[in-house]
Amino acid sequence: MTASEIIDQMFNNDPFSKWLGIERVEEGPGFCVLKLTVREEMLNGFSIAHGGISYALADSALAFSANAHGRKCVSVETSISHVQQVMLGDVLTTSIEEISLTHKIGIYNITVRNQHDVDVAHFKGSVYRSEKEWGAN
Amino acid sequence: MTASEIIDQMFNNDPFSKWLGIERVEEGPGFCVLKLTVREEMLNGFSIAHGGISYALADSALAFSANAHGRKCVSVETSISHVQQVMLGDVLTTSIEEISLTHKIGIYNITVRNQHDVDVAHFKGSVYRSEKEWGAN
Amino acid sequence: MTASEIIDQMFNNDPFSKWLGIERVEEGPGFCVLKLTVREEMLNGFSIAHGGISYALADSALAFSANAHGRKCVSVETSISHVQQVMLGDVLTTSIEEISLTHKIGIYNITVRNQHDVDVAHFKGSVYRSEKEWGAN
Amino acid sequence: MTASEIIDQMFNNDPFSKWLGIERVEEGPGFCVLKLTVREEMLNGFSIAHGGISYALADSALAFSANAHGRKCVSVETSISHVQQVMLGDVLTTSIEEISLTHKIGIYNITVRNQHDVDVAHFKGSVYRSEKEWGAN
User: Fold this and answer.
1) Any chain C CB within 8 A of the CB of A76?
2) Which of C16, C46, C48, D46 has the most CB atoms in a 10 Å sphere around its CB?
3) DSSP 3-state assignment of A17?
4) ∠ CA(D12), CA(D17), CA(D23), 5° rounding?
């Protein structure tokens, strides 16, 4: 299976990504650029986006990117710093750097930026790469 | 303002917490126990809850707990490990330990458990405690 | 091999642990309690222990504890918060909790405390558990 | 005080940095490049450098970089992934990126590379920036 076929299989029938309104911008083995627009129901009591929104976007980018190499992956540890407030109507886009890829472990830095190209969150995630291949029976 | 009055103010008019269906179980200065039930629209393409759901629940518990001491707080860094799959219908509850509280910084460990009392995620968060007091003009 | 035999093999001929003056207090599969006394040459320019000292002690405890289950492990991600200053002459001891152990991944919380039983650092580490067994040819 | 005067004051009379053999390569407000050569006594029982060595180097780079802006800083949370083995005689150098700087909080990514320009560790650290200025009475 190609990277896009793998991500298709993960993304289609994914109710939470649908709810978030995630769009796939670009993708390949080890990377995936995602985008969403902040809606009213994603806000917290301060009228800024809940931290869970940027986290969910980055966590999806991590899962899609790591799996797109062809082997099924599970996340081991993820961390995020929210460095700028996210407002209603903001358009968030991820960029990803694969900082390490060994046989068993992949490590990724993901930056979430708004429509003004300002960093809003820095995410780091590590995954365990299982032996199971996408598309194998 | 009391801890509950502060959390009221954060929680009421919080659209994302409403969408998540978060219930407040117990709270006070430095702690807050939250609960949610996993719905269909919180699932990912594998029919398990998206990692963003446990993260959002724990991140809300962090914000409510830290602010409930009376000073306005912002998160500095958060991390989470998802250690057990979360299924449709699971009821997730947080527990929190304030592992450090200085004048300027608070650090918290939050465990998310399911209805069988099995740990599903381990979250750690640090906050900066500003000078601004809740309820001050 | 028993837990202690594995840790013997890791600890003996370990020059940095010797330099640190690490003592093994208690150990078994999945846990290891270590101790050291802070010496002059471990201090930074503020006359408090360098953050690398508590980190190194906790990182050793992680390695010994995880390997003591019998399979060779490598660390994936570690984090530490230094919450209290460590002074010359302080005696630091680790305690460890294995918060998750699956076939491939182990996750541990380690607390470093001083001789007054005050927490000085909170460390979290995840390891990948390889197929290689200790003592196998 | 200039960045270099501040780092002088932190670095001079710092016994652990001396023991590590840390050299300062380049520095200024918000950044500091450090270097060390791995010696026998820095190795663990596998004849590779103990994780505490890369951590200590990166943690020093964090402290020097953050303080070099002029205000006294304390670290809040640090994390490191060790992605490549470090051998006897390796020469490790840090590079640093200030990924966020607000009035109260600074966040930094530090990469540790060996003499072949291969990444050996990825470190992330956040600091609290106090009101106290270097050089003030």
Assistant:
1) yes
2) C16
3) helix
4) 80
Q: Which residues on neighbouring strands pair with residue D95, listed in sequence order?
A: D111
Element (H, E) at A66: helix A51-67
Cβ-based contacts of D78 with chain C (< 8 Å): 51, 79-82
Which domain does A103 fall in, by range? 3-133
Give CA–CA dist A111/B91, Å, rounded.
31
Q: Are D76 and B79 in contact (CB < 8 Å)?
A: no
Q: Environment class of residue C90 by beta-carbon count within 10 Å: exposed (0-12), middle (13-18) or buried (19+)?
A: buried
Is residue B17, in this structure, part of any structural domain at all?
A: yes
What CATH code is carried by the domain that includes residue B126? 3.10.129.10
Say yes or no for a CB contact (<8 Å) between B99 and C83.
Answer: yes
The secondary structure element, H or E, covering residue D37 is strand D31-37
In contact, B82 and B51? CB cutoff 8 Å: yes
ipTM higher than 0.90? yes
Mind listing the pLDDT tens digit for each residue in A40-49? 999 998 899 9
In whole angstroms, what is the distance from residue B96 CA to residue B35 CA? 13
What is the Cα gyration radius of chain D?
Answer: 15
User: D107–A79: do the CB atoms touch at under 8 Å?
Assistant: no
In a domain, B137, yes or no: no
Are C124 and B124 in contact (CB < 8 Å)?
A: yes
For D46-107, give the DSSP string: TSSB-HHHHHHHHHHHHHHHHHTTSEEEEEEEEEEEE-S---TT-EEEEEEEEEEE-SSEEE
pTM of the model: 0.96
Residue of D nearest to B73 (CA): D104
Residue numbers in A near B10 (CB within 8 A):
44-46
Interacting residues of A89 by C-beta distance below 8 A, sequence separation 6+: A37, A38
Q: What is the DSSP letter of A84?
A: S
For residues C69 and C55, give the distance between their C-alpha atoms in angstroms, rounded to a whole number: 22
Total domain count for chain A?
A: 1
pLDDT in tens, chain C (137 residues): 999 999 999 999 899 999 999 999 999 999 999 999 999 999 998 899 999 999 999 999 999 999 999 999 999 999 999 999 999 999 999 999 999 999 999 999 999 999 999 999 999 999 999 999 999 86
Residue B109 lies in a domain: yes
* Contact between C50 and D77 using a beta-carbon 8 Å cutoff: no
